[in-house]
Amino acid sequence: MADLDATRGTGSGLPDALRAAGNAGAAGAFDDHHRPRADQVADCVHCGFCLTTCPTYVLWGEEMDSPRGRIHLIAQGLEGEPLSTSMVTHVDRCLGCMACVTACPSGVRYDQLIEDTRAQVERRHPRGARDRALRAAIFALFPYPRRLRLLRGPLWAYQRSGLQALIGRTQLLERLAPTLATLNALAPRLRGVPRPPRRVAAHGDRRAVVGMLTGCVQSAFFPDVNAATVRILAAEGCDVLIPPGQGCCGALSVHNGRRAEAERFARRLIDTFERSGMDYFVVNAAGCGSSLKEYGALLADDPAYATRAATFAAKVRDLAELLIEIGPVAERHPLPVTVAYHDACHLGHAQGIRAQPRTLLRGVPGLELREIADPEICCGSAGVWNVLNPEPAAALGDRKAAAVLATGASLLVTANPGCLMQVAAAVRRQGGEIALAHTAQVLDASIRGLGPAALTDR
Ligand code: SF4
Ligand code: SF4
């Protein structure tokens, strides 16, 4: 702990070295464009309360793969240490799950520290050729819903031919190309659902006008979740605005240090919706919601967008958050099903939304809600972290799948497409069986009076 001791405060505020480095814009790991803030680093008192909630510390037990260790590395960078490969490795291994933010009694803004650090890494650290190529492929595909939708046809044929299941069984890909094996295991079973119209009218008296994010992975691979979301909102008295071509919200980019790209996506989304007359902007993907709520900070340096971005961000609501805020009025019909609810990290840790989905699910007559052990530990999805880090992601997925299966529930419910794909793959790997659904699909099934088979026999 000698190195950690060196960054401790003296009780009078910032440690001297950090104060000097942070305020003077010293050289070292970081340049002056949004360098990690020394005062936020100094808020960490090294108590270690965050360690047991950190998935990488749980996996490896290494101090530098814990929140406290990463904050220490950032402090060293601010004091003049260069951006070494080792430092980048520990930063890259962070899932950005924000469990440490929930756990920290000192209010350390690790979320902001890691976001600023990642942006520095992406700008200043030369990556190896393989890593560069993989990241280029990921970011040329995932934030583009139209490109993802082009994959539906080939993926459908691949699944129907039985090849996906066969390749999964042989485990050959795991040995030869773990990244491809992960993509193969994650690919969800496709369902054909018509695209939603541009505007859907509220049933009965209108209570709100709501813009809706259709998302990238959500719109390409989970169109049934979007369709359920639209039906719920309309049933609850909302006019729903769904302009086509709205593009990506930028979540994937900002969580991976690609700040300029995220800013471009954010401006486009604001342009698309800001004159629509919406009261709220609703999101059904946890990772997207947490980024959208930070648009004010993301575009704070842009005089043309700073105020508009803050206004937009103030309207953003997760679906469950909005339904509780306006108060559910649509009748719920009985749905006798046992549900294990999984807190997506970017809903629970990043947005503090845990009670609302549970309240909504408990409001469904006949539904029994069961809790999953160690709910604060990430399932290993974390945006594209599972693609970039296939082996540890599988280990975290297996851990989560075992906890889910131990509940004995027949349906796993969560509010993020990445978690659904990650846990589904891990459950299959363990030879277990559980149906999966988004919160929206459960509420939709209850409002429409469908039986549990609509969720469990898909
Ligand atoms: S964000 Fe998650 S993985 Fe990263 S340091 Fe915090 S708890 Fe660990
Ligand atoms: S819980 Fe907070 S103050 Fe304690 S070590 Fe972790 S980040 Fe630092």
Note down, in words, how this protein is organized:
By secondary structure, this protein is an alpha/beta fold. The protein has 29 helices and 9 strands. Strands 1-3-2-4-5 form a 5-stranded mixed sheet. A 4-stranded parallel sheet has the order 7-6-8-9, with helices on both faces. Helix 27 (417-429) links the parallel strand 8 (411-414) and strand 9. The radius of gyration is 22 Å and the shape is globular. The structure holds iron/sulfur cluster (2 copies). One iron/sulfur cluster binds at residues 44-50, 67-68, 71, 100, 103-104, 106, 108.
Question: In terms of topology, how is this protein built?
Answer:
Layout lengths: L1 H5 L9 H9 L13 H5 L12 H6 L6 H12 L6 H8 L6 H5 L6 H15 L4 H13 L3 H6 L1 H9 L2 H8 L1 H5 L1 H9 L12 E2 L7 E5 L4 H5 L1 H13 L2 E4 L9 H5 L3 H15 L6 E4 L2 H7 L2 H4 L7 H9 L1 E3 H8 L11 E4 L3 H7 L3 H8 L5 E4 L13 H4 L1 H17 L4 E4 L2 H13 L5 E4 H10 L4 H4 L2
Parallel strand pairs: 2-3, 2-4, 4-5, 6-7, 6-8, 8-9
Antiparallel strand pairs: 1-3
